[in-house]
């Protein structure tokens, strides 16, 4: 349809990178793109930390559950939700800073929107990316390694680099499951999931030469049959966030 939509619909995460560093002008363009993402009331409640020190990247790879590509990629970016800057601006203006679940969501959304713009910009330069939620496995360690102040938390990381693999595209839910008209349509969603379970079963069978045959519903059940990262609430409270 056009080159932007072609790029968006060709996305696949890259988990093997050539060691090439990202040139400064490319980093500048990626961050400029991130910064032009829409942002709630212009709060820009995020900070992006570029991990360039090899020892730091190694430590972050470990903290993310030994994901080697965090260390191997040319550039590792950590997207942090940041209310610290807003608190300073409010207090320096002589006002009391109020925060709650809404401001937490605003900062997390701003970080995610900036990140996705960065991802698309990087892909448009021929680079590959992979989001790394694994850094939330050990948020205390990440906060310490990155010297995060109060009211800042690491939402996720992102590997950026020159791809050294050509993975196939991962199928998504049928559009009928995610696009409903004039109200929530459970039957469209349920029917879409039934079709998607067949698609994903075939996808994994083909990808693993028949060794793995698992549907999307089964893998979601495996993930959500226990609490996921239950340590995050106490961590966020320790960082000074009030989820009220
Ligand atoms: C917030 C977020 C966190 C993610 N965390 C990880 C991660 O820690 N490790 C990883 O290998 N992939 C991670 N991914 C990548 C997803 O697994 C991937 O986007 C998804 O399976 C769809 O595949 P695709 O990106 O190749 O289309 C993450 C993606 C997102 C959006």
UniProtKB/TrEMBL annotation:
Region forming the signal peptide: none
CDD domains registered for this protein in UniProt: NfsA-like (cd02146)
Record Pfam families: Nitroreductase
Keyword Flavoprotein recorded: yes
Keyword Oxidoreductase in annotation: yes
A GO term for molecular function: oxidoreductase activity
InterPro entries: Flavin_OxRdtase_Frp, Nitroreductase, Nitroreductase-like
Gene3D superfamilies hit by this protein: NADH Oxidase
Keywords: Flavoprotein, FMN, NADP, Oxidoreductase
Sequence ranges assigned to domain Nitroreductase in this UniProt record: 9-161
Family in the record: Belongs to the flavin oxidoreductase frp family.
Entries under PANTHER family matching the protein: OXYGEN-INSENSITIVE NADPH NITROREDUCTASE (PTHR43425)
Name of the protein described by the UniProt record: Oxygen-insensitive NADPH nitroreductase
């Amino acid at each position: 349809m056009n080159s932007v939509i072609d790029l968006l619909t060709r996305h696949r995460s890259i988990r093997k990178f050539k060691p090439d560093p990202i040139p400064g002008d490319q980093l500048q363009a990626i961050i400029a793109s991130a910064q032009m993402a829409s942002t709630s009331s212009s709060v820009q409640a995020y900070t992006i930390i570029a991990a360039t020190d090899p020892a730091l990247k190694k430590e972050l790879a470990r903290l993310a559950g030994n994901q080697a590509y965090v260390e191997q990629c040319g550039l590792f970016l950590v997207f942090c939700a940041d209310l610290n800057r807003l608190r300073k601006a409010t207090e320096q203006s002589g006002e009391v800073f109020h925060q709650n679940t809404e401001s937490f969501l605003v900062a997390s959304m701003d970080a995610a929107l900036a990140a996705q713009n960065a991802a698309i910009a990087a892909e448009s330069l021929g680079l590959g990316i992979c989001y790394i939620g694994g850094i939330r496995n050990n948020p205390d360690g990440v906060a310490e390694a990155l010297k995060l102040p109060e009211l800042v938390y690491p939402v996720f990381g992102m590997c950026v680099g020159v791809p050294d693999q050509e993975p196939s595209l991962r199928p998504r839910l049928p559009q009928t499951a995610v696009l409903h008209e004039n109200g929530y349509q459970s039957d469209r969603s349920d029917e879409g999931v039934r079709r998607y379970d067949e698609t994903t079963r075939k996808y994994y069978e083909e990808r693993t030469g028949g060794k793995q045959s698992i549907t999307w519903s089964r893998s979601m059940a495996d993930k959500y049959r226990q609490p996921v990262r239950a340590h995050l609430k106490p961590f966020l409270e320790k960082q000074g966030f009030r989820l009220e």
